Amino acid sequence: MSHRGVRAAPDPALARLQEDILRWKKAGVVVERLAINQVPQRFMANPTVVELLTREGQEVLPVALLDGKVVCKGKYPTYDQVTREGM
Predict the structure, then answer these.
(1) Which of 7, 24, 28, 77 is most buried, with most CB under 10 Å away?
(2) Rounded to whole angstroms, what are the CA distances from 16 to 21, 26, 49, 59?
(3) What is the 8-class DSSP label of residue 5?
(4) How far is the C-alpha of 81 from the C-alpha of 12, rounded, in Å?
(5) What pLDDT, on a 0 to 100 scale, did the predictor assign at position 18?
C-alpha cells in the first residue's frame, strides 16, 4: 500500500491565524508574519523578542507583538485577543 500523496491534517490554529490575518488586514491593520528559520535577523533586531528568547527559549514561539507590546506567546493569537489589546 502506497502512502504517496497522503498529507498530515492542517493545524487548525494555523488555519485560524491565516483567517484572522485576513480580517486584520481588511480592518487596515499592518500585519507581518515572520518565521525565525527564514529571517532570523529580523527576530534578532527586535529587543523584545531577543529578551524573550534569551529568558524563555524557543518555547516562547510563536510570539505576537502589537505596537511593540507582547500580546501572546507560546501560541498563535486569536482575533479577539488582539482586538482587546488595542487594535
Answers:
(1) 77
(2) 9, 15, 23, 21
(3) T
(4) 17
(5) 93
Residue 15 to residues 18, 54, 63, 75, 77, Cα–Cα distance (Å): 5, 29, 17, 13, 12
Q: Do residues 31 and 24 touch, judged by C-beta distance below 8 A? A: yes
Q: CA-CA distance, 8 to 19, in Å (whole number)?
A: 20
More confident residue, 44 or 7: 44
Domain architecture of the chain: domains with CATH: 35-87 (3.40.30.10)
pLDDT at 61: 93
> Which of 34, 43, 26 has the alpha carbon at shortest distance from 79?
26
- Say how far apart CA 80 and CA 36 lie, in whole Å: 25
Lowest mean pLDDT among 16-20, 51-55, 77-81: 77-81
pLDDT of amino acid 68: 87
